[in-house]
Amino acid sequence: MSRRRASLASRLWARARTTGRLILHFLHPARFVLAPLLIVVLLAGVLLWLTGGLAYVAPFVYALF
Amino acid sequence: MRVLGISAHYHDAAAALLIDGELVAAIQQERLSRIKNDPSLPITAARACLAHAGIEAASLDRVVFYEQPFDKLERVLVNLLRHVPRTWRQFPRALASQLGGKIYVLDQLAEAFDLPRDKVSCFDHHRCHAASSLFVSPFDEAAVLVVDGVGEHSSTTIWHGRGSSLRPVERIEFPHSLGLLYAGLTSYLGFAVNEGEYKVMGLAAWGRDRYRDRFAKLVRLSDDGSYELGLEYFAHMSDAELGFGPALERLLGPRRPPDLAWDLASERDRHYADIAASLQAILEDALLGLARRALAQTGARNLCLAGGVALNSVANARLLRESGCQRVFVQPAAGDAGGALGAAILGALELGDPRPAALDSAALGLAVDVARAHAIARELGLSIRRVQDPIETTAELLSAGQIVAQVRGRFEWGPRALGQRSILARADARATRDRINRLIKRRELFRPFAPAVLASRCADYFAAEPDDMTPFMTTVAPIRPERADRLGAVTHQDGSARVQTVTPTSSPALHEVLARLAADGRDPVVLNTSLNGPGEPIVAGAEDAIAFWLRHGVDAMIIEDLLIERSA
Hints:
The complex is a heterodimer.
Chain A: H1 8-26, H2 35-51, H3 61-64
Chain B: E1 2-7, E2 14-19, E3 22-28, H1 29-33, H2 43-53, E4 62-65, H3 69-82, H4 91-99, H5 105-112, E5 120-122, H6 125-134, E6 141-147, E7 154-162, E8 165-173, H7 178-188, H8 197-204, H9 212-218, E9 219-221, E10 227-229, H10 246-252, H11 267-298, E11 302-306, H12 313-322, E12 327-330, H13 336-350, H14 370-379, E13 383-386, H15 390-399, E14 404-407, E15 421-426, H16 430-441, E16 450-454, H17 458-461, E17 477-478, E18 496-497, E19 500-502, H18 508-519, E20 525-530, H19 542-551, E21 556-559, E22 562-565
Parallel strand pairs in B: 1-4, 4-5, 6-11, 11-12, 14-21, 16-19
Antiparallel strand pairs in B: 1-2, 2-3, 6-7, 7-8, 9-10, 13-22, 14-15, 15-20, 16-20, 17-18, 21-22
Helix pairs in contact in B: 6-13, 8-11, 11-12, 14-19, 15-18
């Protein structure tokens, strides 16, 4: 099993590509209405990343989150 | 092709490995992390699967996740918007949950296994569930019914499976969900969600379904087999802690406080037992409607079930009896863990591998390291000895009325211990059941223990023949009244039992013990319950087995040919 860890740069690049795919996903006409919310989500994501995020576990978390 | 399937992030994370279409290993993360229902990304379980197969992660052709992260996020956002302002407090938590890793899960998997990102893919949650059942079933063609809490958007789906194809037929979407109905009432009855649903099912046999009219408001069943929840009674759309709202308490009375001792002789707890019975009855009616619909829409004669609701063994038995199908199959890890299996199969099929063989055993985990167990036991000064014939030894101990922990072979896939990591005891005496409860399980007394019987002798003790579910303990059968006195420890309140039929392929170690009992002229039936204490995952390796021995009062433990006994 390789234990080599991806570099920070490559991990950030992977996240950026995924974020790009996410934006493309929400550019579908049927999902336009969610675009403003997505922007808020992504901005909040940056804040969460900068502040170390939150951990939360609850019984119905799978239904809601 | 080498394909790894992964389920994670909600409950029961797991990994499953297929090589050239053959299911090589399938392991739930909780068995190795020792955290019950561990939802974390199952890297340890995945590495254990790879180690068992003797391959490197770099040689994997595909890693497949059991859910579409973007579709899930879309549903979460739509739901949060739809239920503003009730959801505003959940918003930061939802964001943290999604952005803390869930939408980047495919990147995380690529990094964990040091694979190019294009070797990591995902499939729809319910498609993975459906695949996990159909493609390891004995059927070439079947209607597949998936019922769970919720996947990305769907909570109930019907599929038509034939050969290696799986075609979606119909679906019901969140927030209408039979899984969340059951979870909400589980919470109302004071049990832990995702763990206490078995308790509700057990409790139901003690009650009468006299609240059917009230439950008709909670879930409205249509003649076409579909259903709708009365959403005003539920809160799973806006509250992560409690699945029900104040309206439910106005309808059924106040919720039962958790951790209150049960007394089914009391009027209070008989009321709650009646609620459990009513819930179970309406769930069964709903599933029956869906199953009939699935069979009618697909023209298939066999039925595969998947999703957490498919672990309701009482409902499964009724579907086999009354839906009009010929056979029903439920694989042992029907809940979210099973999604890893389905994901792996879908990935392998996409790469051109053949469909896997029908599942004939749930022993898909790791074998126990008996040398390690021996070394630990010796170091701790335990009373140990190697035995020439562990089968004979186990049979003798059981015949003498002892409670025996059996650790042999590869541990099981799914929530049921099926003979590899089991506590075994005589099935005849109710006192044995009480002793197991008092010393080890500390369960509510209304919960039954299950029997394991030699498949060839099943009909001698139960009013049923072995079927596609009995090897995995995913169904129930009535006990023959004339045998009731010999099955006192495993007979539930309603005269049924969650029977496991045992063959040389389904559970070799347990089969040998039962065959020896039969050869000695004894009943080839034992009480079989999982090798764990309250709140613990089932034992996996040598360390877990010895730790269990030290914590709990079984009379003897057999680890392959190593016998541990209590010192005089």
